[in-house]
Amino acid sequence: MRRKGFILLIIVALASSCGEYEKLLKSTDFELKKQAAKDYFEEGRYVRSSELLGQILPRYRATAEAEDLNWLSAQCYYNMRDYIMAGAAYKNFANTYPYSEHAEEATFMTAYCDYMMSPRPELDQAYTNSAIEAFTFFQRRFPSSEKVEDAQNLIQELEDKLVEKSYINARLYYDLGEYRAAVVALDNSLKEYPNTQYREELMFLKLESSYLYAFNSIADKQQERFQVTLDEYYSFVEEFPDSEFNKDVQKIYDTTADFLNIDETIE
Question: For residues 85-114, b (16+ Cβ closer than 10 Å) or e, as one string?
């Protein structure tokens, strides 16, 4: 019976709380709503705080309190994990109040919200690029900030994701057997990210794609295309003489050299 009584008390309390909140939403007392929004924020009830702020912000737009209320609104969105709205609110705050004590943090958080929305490498990387641009802007805007190093580390993490995205896209054509397209995609990836951790594998895939493209070409085109393969071979072995792919590279060379009547082997 005690347990049932306790549960009943909770239900009554919740119902009372909801009733009071509904009255607040309908109230025309903006000072009361403002204080309630702050109280709800302190209690961690960000949805309620955000809803009340949304109602009262237009009324306080041209007042001395507008800055603090807009900052509170951005913080609500972030704590609700609504990164789209939070990012927009932080950016608007930074633009509207460039000399605020919160301007530096707002600028950083604008970028960080995009960072939080950056998806895994297989997906579209629009938010990744946006975050990199925003963090770069933050570094230029606040070069002495304690968060500059954090911004640089996050930029590196995001750029690594773009490198992986490029690798996945380039590899896809190879996996599909579209060797001509693979050569182009792999070459573009290597040019865009010359220091990628996947460089050796990408160069090997480019060599093998060139070889398979030549091998499967019509007879009239094979001479020219095997010559391109030979050039790719020399580029690869010059850069990676002790490659883990050397066994396969040797086979590609042997077939290419045989077709081009070249009497030479890997030393």
Answer: bbbebbbebbeebeebebbbbbbbbbbbbb
Cβ atoms < 10 Å from Cβ of 50:
24
- Token pair recorded at residue 54: 């949304």
What single letter denotes the amino acid at residue 187? D
In whole angstroms, give the CA distance from residue 228 to residue 175.
21
Tokens 């990744």, residue?
128
Q: Shortest CA distance to 117 belongs to which of 136, 104, 133, 130?
A: 130
Burial class, 82, CB count within 10 angstroms (exposed 0-12 / middle 13-18 / buried 19+): middle
* Amino acid in position 138: F
DSSP E strands in 77-149: the ranges are none
Residues constituting the chain: 267
C-alpha span between 166 and 185 (Å, rounded): 9
The per-residue pLDDT for range 100-134, each reduced to its tens digit, is: 999 999 999 999 999 999 999 999 999 999 999 99
Q: What is the pLDDT of residues 185-232, one digit of tens each?
A: 999 999 999 999 999 999 999 999 999 999 999 999 999 999 999 999
Alpha helices in 144-218 (DSSP H): 148-175, 179-192, 199-215
What are the structural domain ranges in the chain?
178-267
